[in-house]
Amino acid sequence: MALLITGGAGYIGSHTVVELLEAGQEVIVLDNLANSSRASLQRVAQITGREPQLIEGDVRDARLLDRLFAEHPVEAVVHFAGLKAVGESVRHPLDYYDNNVGGSLALCQAMARAGVRRLAFSSSATVYGAPADMPIPETCPIGIPTNPYGQSKRMVEDMLNDLVASDPRWSIALLRYFNPVGAHPSGLIGEDPDGIPNNLLPYITQVAVGRLERLAVFGDDYPTIDGTGVRDYIHVVDLARGHLAALGFLSTHPGIHAWNLGTGTGYSVLQIIEAFERASGRPVPYTIAPRRPGDVAQCWSDPAKAMRELGWRATLGLDRMMEDAWRWQSGNPAGYAEAD
Ligand code: NAD
Ligand code: UFG
Question: Whose CA is nearest to atom 30 of ligand 2?
Answer without folding.
Answer: 126
